[in-house]
Amino acid sequence: MNTKDNTILITGGATGIGRSLAETFMSAGNEVIICGRRENRLNEVKTQWPQVHIRVCDVSKEKERESLYNWTRDNFKDINILINNAGIQIPIDLRKGVEALLDDESEIETNLVAPISLSVHFIPLLMEQEAAAIVNVSSGLAFVPTPFVPIYCATKAALHSFTVSLRYQLEKTSVKVFEVVPPAVVTELHWRRTEGRSGRGSNAIQPSEVAEATLKGLANDEYEIYPGWVKDFIERGRTGP
């Protein structure tokens, strides 16, 4: 797939992997739109990269997803790549019962419902383009779950399954479907999970490595993109120690 002269929407684009994706794709000669919940973080990216387009949006809420789609459709008719990157990761002790799920941030809505909903919103628009793509950012934990973040692992496993099904449904269209499977990455999300656990996080890769692998993967039509050491991690997890 051509990785230049695209119009790209990146969810969760103000920080972490999303911000690196935005910077990498802008440097490669693309028009980039980012959305996120925190306007101040979006403005930080805008200050560094004045050409970026920003939109405040909490993708966990359907009305805001619909508003994001309508705004993008009305202002960027040439949009041809959707990157579903936004995600949250919350340590949950399921032994506490239902109280463990009572959190203001919904991992299921953000990590799974949002990318499904946004994909469905944008597919008809993307199919109008000569070449288009949907890129879903899952996780190595989709394949090798950890007990510390069970809901996160489940949502990423479901996102992987959805991505495979979507790829088959769209194979006769102009829309290619990619999945990016990062290992642990140095982001706010990763450190929130590992805070206080000695020895964890030392092998986390930088967000820029994920972004560069994504750009290369799209260019080579690699529909499953494995940055860093994640392939070894998945293989070890499947076969045991």
Write the layout of secondary structure elements.
Elements: E1 7-11, H1 16-27, E2 31-36, H2 39-48, E3 53-56, H3 62-75, E4 81-84, H4 107-126, E5 132-137, H5 150-169, E6 175-180, H6 188-194, H7 207-219, E7 224-225, H8 230-239
Parallel strand pairs: 1-2, 1-4, 2-3, 4-5, 5-6, 6-7
Helix pairs in contact: 1-7, 3-4, 4-5
Task: Give Rg in angstroms.
Answer: 17 Å
For the record, the CATH class is Alpha Beta
Strand order of the largest sheet: 3-2-1-4-5-6-7
CATH superfamily: NAD(P)-binding Rossmann-like Domain
Low-confidence stretches: 191-201
User: How large is the count of helical segments?
Assistant: 8
Helix share bin? 40-55%
The coarse overall form would be globular
- Average pLDDT value? 92
- The SSE order reads EHEHEHEHEHEHHEH
At the fold tier of CATH, the topology name is Rossmann fold
Tell me what the CATH architecture is.
Answer: 3-Layer(aba) Sandwich
Q: Mind describing the biggest β-sheet?
A: 7 strands, parallel
Task: Kindly report how far apart the N and C termini lie.
Answer: 38 Å
Q: How large a portion of the residues is in β-strands, by DSSP E?
A: 5-15%
